[in-house]
Amino acid sequence: MAGRRSKHAIDQGLLISLVGIFFALWIVKEISQNSAVLLFIVVAAGAIFIVPRLVRDSRRQSLYQKANAIIDHHIDQLARRRAQLVREDAYGRVQLDKWAKEIDYFVMHHVSPALTAKEQALLSRERTPIVQTISERAEILVQNRPVFTTFSSDLNPAEFEIFCAEQLKRCGWNAHVTLQSRDQGVDVIAEKWGLRVVLQCKLYSGPVGNHAVQEIAAGKAHAQAHWGAVVTNNRYTSAAEELASTNGILLLHYSDLVNLDSLLQSRHPGIAGFSKPRVSQTFSCPSCYAPVSQGQVFCGNCGTRVIS
């Protein structure tokens, strides 16, 4: 009996399949004889597949237009935040972690609230290109128009460090701000013609004391630099001046940075031959700043090629 039921079920399935085939053939026959019906089906099928895509593209275009408008409105602040947050570690590697978090914050709190609910849902899928747009535009602006090129009383200590580095860059120095958590008393490292200067930058409302001199003297030894200097917007105490003289530390006002070449030459004419650039017997690896001998092709510390 079970076998008869199984056979009966197979016969029913076969019958349904045949009816379906004959019905499909009849529809094809009717369509081929009626061009209006054929046109309607083609248009309907096209609408089913094309219209949703057009709607998605329209929402995507609206999302990008709104995002770009918000980025345009805040681009100066974004460039400023990038300059504040991006640092190089001791090996010359750019640290972007804090900047990446800042971009995420900007997207969440400034871009997303300006979108419709459907655009916000789309943002979760289109987040990566928008983040890349923010990062690239801020980076280009910082490169083409450095943010902290002039001194302002509105600068905070971190911005003052960037300002000091920018002043040296304008004079041909390869200068960068160090990571604050690992600076060993050094805020800015600057190199030129194989010679290295380390700075501690003090944005003070009063005179700078000898503690800053002690820190940069230790930082100079740690970084194996030729010179150490404290840079401030204010003046120095007599104790700081006395200790700096003993330790060979330069005490500078920020306005002195543009004349650092001539200042070093006047104080150390036998070492800092800036009027006639020359290569010293030892220079520094561009990646890890370890000493490299003249004629050496690869850095013995990190393996970076130092002669092209």
Tell me what you see in this structure.
The protein is an alpha/beta fold. It folds into three domains: 2-33; 52-144, no CATH class; 157-277, Trna Endonuclease, Chain: A, domain 1. The chain contains eight helices and nine strands. It has helices at residues 2-33, 35-85, 97-111, 117-144, 157-169, 210-223, 238-247, 260-267; strands at residues 87-88, 94-95, 174-177, 188-192, 195-202, 227-232, 250-253, 282-284, 291-293. Strands 3-4-5-6-7 form a five-stranded mixed beta sheet, sandwiched between helices. The chain is elongated, with a radius of gyration of 34 Å. It starts with a helix and ends in a 15-residue tail after the last strand.
Under CATH, the topology of the largest domain can be stated as Trna Endonuclease, Chain: A, domain 1
- Taking strands numbered 1, 2, ... along the chain, how are they ordered across the largest sheet? 3-4-5-6-7
Shape descriptor: elongated
CATH class of the largest domain: Alpha Beta
Helix content: 55-70%
Q: Give me the strand/helix succession.
A: HHEEHHHEEEHEHEHEE
Total number of strands: 9
Largest sheet: 5 strands, mixed
The second-level CATH architecture of the largest domain is: 3-Layer(aba) Sandwich
- Average residue pLDDT: 77
| Radius of gyration, in angstroms, nearest whole number | 34 Å
Structural class estimated from helices and strands:
alpha/beta
**What is the domain total for the residues?**
3
User: N-to-C terminal Cα separation, in Å?
Assistant: 89 Å
Unreliable stretches, pLDDT < 50, 5 or more residues? 272-282
